[in-house]
C-alpha cells in the first residue's frame, strides 16, 4: 500500500492474526484502534476480548485468549486509545493471561508495555514479546518548510476520534480505484498497524513535528498523491500542537474537514464547545498557508453513523447547500463521495 519509510516500516512486522483487546472501555471513541482494525484489517482479526466493565464491542466474535490462540491468533492488540494513552490497572491480569495462552502483546499507547513490571515478568516467564508501536523513527530533522514535489491531502477535524483516519483510507481506496498513484500516510497507532508503516506524530518531540511530517510525505512525482491521516484538532486545547505541526509539515494542497454532527463539545473536555466547520476551514487555511499558500478545502466528511440512510442523506444535502462544498460520508459512499473525490482532484 505504501512506499517504504525507512526503519519504522521495516520494524513493523507484527505477529498476526490479532485478538483485539477493548480494555474496560465504555466510550466507543476511546476504542478507535479496535474499530479501525476491525473495519480495515478484518482479515487479520480473529475476535475480541475485554476486561470487566467494558460495554463496547466491535461485533467480532468474543474469544478468550486461549480460544483465540487455538483459532490461530498470534498476538493480542490493545485496541484502546484513551486519554493519556495509559494501561489500565484492571487490564494487567488479562494481558498476563494472554501471554500465558501463547500470545504476544502489541500496544500503541503512550505508556510502554515494558514499564509495567508484571508484564515484563510474564513476558520473561512465557517467552512472549511486548511490542510497542508508538515509537518514532530514531532520527527526525526539524522542519525546513521547503516546498516538495507531488500532491498532498490532509484530513483535519473539528475534534478527535470522528473520522480522519477512515476518511483518508477511503479516499486512498477511491484514488487507487481511479488508477491514481497514491499512498496512505499513517500518523497514529491504528493507521500504522493497518498500513505497516508511518510516524506516530503524538510521540514525536514537539520541535520535530513538522520535520516528521515532511519526512512522512517526501518529494514525489508530480501526479502522485499522499493522503495523510490527520491527528487531533487545531481547536483542541490538549492536542492542537500535534495538529499544527502536522499541518505545517504536510504542506497540504487540499484538506478535507471531518466532523461528527452529533457532537457538541470537545471529547473529554465538556467545557469547550466544538468549533463549527466554517471555523475549521478558516483557521486551517490561515495557518496552512504559511507553508503552502495554495492550500484549499476540498470538502467535508461527515460521520453519519448515528443516522439512518434517509436522515444522513438529508443532512448531507442541507450541508452542501449551506457550505457550498461537497459533503459526503466516505463510509456510505455513493454519488456524494464521488463528487468529493472529483472536487479534490479538480
Automatic annotation (TrEMBL):
Superkingdom of source: Bacteria
Gene3D superfamilies: NAD(P)-binding Rossmann-like Domain, P-loop containing nucleotide triphosphate hydrolases
Pfam entry (one): DUF1611_N
Residue intervals of the D-glutamate N-acetyltransferase-like C-terminal domain: 142-335
SUPFAM superfamilies: P-loop containing nucleoside triphosphate hydrolases
Domain D-glutamate N-acetyltransferase-like N-terminal, first and last residues per copy: 53-136
Descriptive protein name: EBNA-1 nuclear protein
Amino acid at each position: 500500500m505504501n512506499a517504504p519509510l525507512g526503519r519504522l516500516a521495516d520494524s513493523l512486522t507484527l505477529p498476526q492474526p490479532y485478538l483485539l483487546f477493548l480494555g474496560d472501555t465504555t466510550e466507543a471513541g476511546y476504542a478507535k484502534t479496535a474499530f479501525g482494525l476491525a473495519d480495515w484489517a478484518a482479515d487479520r482479526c480473529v475476535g475480541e476480548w475485554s476486561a470487566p466493565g467494558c460495554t463496547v464491542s466491535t461485533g467480532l466474535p468474543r474469544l478468550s485468549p486461549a480460544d483465540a490462540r487455538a483459532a490461530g491468533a498470534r498476538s493480542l492488540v490493545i485496541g484502546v486509545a484513551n486519554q493519556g494513552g495509559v494501561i489500565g490497572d484492571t487490564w494487567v491480569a488479562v494481558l498476563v493471561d494472554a501471554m500465558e495462552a501463547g500470545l504476544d502483546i502489541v500496544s500503541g499507547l503512550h505508556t510502554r508495555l515494558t514499564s509495567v513490571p508484571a508484564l515484563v515478568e510474564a513476558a520473561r516467564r512465557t517467552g512472549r514479546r511486548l511490542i510497542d508501536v508508538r515509537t518514532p523513527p530514531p532520527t527526525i530533522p526539524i522542519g525546513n518548510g521547503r516546498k516538495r514535489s507531488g500532491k498532498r491531502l490532509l484530513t483535519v477535524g473539528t475534534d478527535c476520534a470522528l473520522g480522519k483516519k477512515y476518511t483518508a483510507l477511503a479516499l486512498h481506496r477511491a484514488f487507487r480505484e481511479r488508477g491514481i498513484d497514491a499512498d496512505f500516510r499513517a500518523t497514529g497507532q491504528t493507521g500504522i498497524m493497518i498500513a505497516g508503516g508511518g510516524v506516530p506524530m503524538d510521540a514525536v518531540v514537539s520541535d520535530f513535528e513538522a520535520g516528521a511530517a515532511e519526512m512522512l510525505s517526501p518529494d514525489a512525482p508530480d501526479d502522485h498523491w499522499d493522503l495523510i491521516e490527520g491527528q487531533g484538532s487545531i481547536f483542541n486545547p490538549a492536542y492542537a500542537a500535534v495538529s499544527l505541526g502536522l499541518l505545517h509539515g504536510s504542506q497540504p494542497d487540499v484538506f478535507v474537514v471531518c466532523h461528527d454532527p452529533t457532537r457538541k463539545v470537545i471529547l473529554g473536555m465538556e467545557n469547550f464547545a466544538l468549533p463549527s466547520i466554517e471555523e475549521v476551514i478558516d483557521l486551517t487555511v490561515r495557518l496552512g498557508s504559511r507553508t503552502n499558500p495554495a492550500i484549499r478545502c476540498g470538502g467535508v466528511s461527515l460521520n453519519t453513523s448515528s443516522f439512518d440512510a434517509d436522515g444522513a442523506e438529508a443532512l448531507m444535502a442541507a450541508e452542501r447547500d449551506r457550505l457550498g462544498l461537497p459533503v459526503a460520508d466516505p463510509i456510505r459512499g455513493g454519488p456524494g463521495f464521488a463528487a468529493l473525490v472529483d472536487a479534490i482532484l479538480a
